[in-house]
Amino acid sequence: AQSVTQLGSHVSVSEGALVLLRCNYSSSVPPYLFWYVQYPNQGLQLLLKYTTGATLVKGINGFEAEFKKSETSFHLTKPSAHMSDAAEYFCAVTLQGAQKLVFGQGTRLTINP
Amino acid sequence: NAGVTQTPKFRVLKTGQSMTLLCAQDMNHEYMYWYRQDPGMGLRLIHYSVGEGTTAKGEVPDGYNVSRLKKQNFLLGLESAAPSQTSVYFCASNPGLAAYEQYFGPGTRLTVT
Fold this sequence. Notes:
Mean pLDDT of chain A: 94
Shape of chain A: globular
Largest interface: A-B, 24 and 25 residues
Strand content of chain B: over 45%
Order of helices and strands of chain B: EEEEEEEEEEE
Low-confidence stretches of chain B: none
Number of strands of chain A: 11
Largest sheet of chain B: 7 strands, mixed
Structural class of chain A: mainly beta
Oligomer: heterodimer
Largest sheet of chain A: 6 strands, mixed
Radius of gyration of chain B: 13 Å
Helix content of chain B: under 10%
Radius of gyration of chain A: 13 Å
Order of helices and strands of chain A: EEEEEEEEEEE
Mean pLDDT of chain B: 94
Structural class of chain B: mainly beta
Number of helices of chain A: 0
Distance between the termini of chain B: 36 Å
Number of helices of chain B: 0
Strand content of chain A: over 45%
Shape of chain B: globular
Helix content of chain A: under 10%
């Protein structure tokens, strides 16, 4: 069965600094990987996803993630943090043909002025 | 389009009471999901449905029942609420298969005293 681990339940960065949120997955076959964002008191929305093809995936709001099979990772990055990026971020994994996602525990991102 | 809506937004129950949470989507999606979100545990799948009239158990189904009598609606029932069911409940839908983006409702905050 597939699983996903997010390293760090809480990450704090200064405005303008690099954002790096870590996600490692476990899967015996090539996975599909997702990052979702949850703003306060809202549901989740998709940031980006990797299914096949290019391993560097660009999403909304300047975020991107790179699928690294050798490291079983799908870390989320943004070159310069903005105050509006403060939210909780979830990594998720599934397999081709599967019916459901498996979510990580989430990482709360705080942006310091 | 309203997307995914959830009713009610907030509810307080006493132990042993019952209630039904309603999820409705207007995107003609085949798949619908019920999750619960608890601090530090991410989203955990309760039940899901891959089409009208079908339901399946997720990761944490005990104490919950579901029904999908109409394609656009997915109901989550608590027959005898327990304090351990205090949580935020999210409904989601997608066109079919987990590889597609899931669209989330705004959530229902349930407190069981």
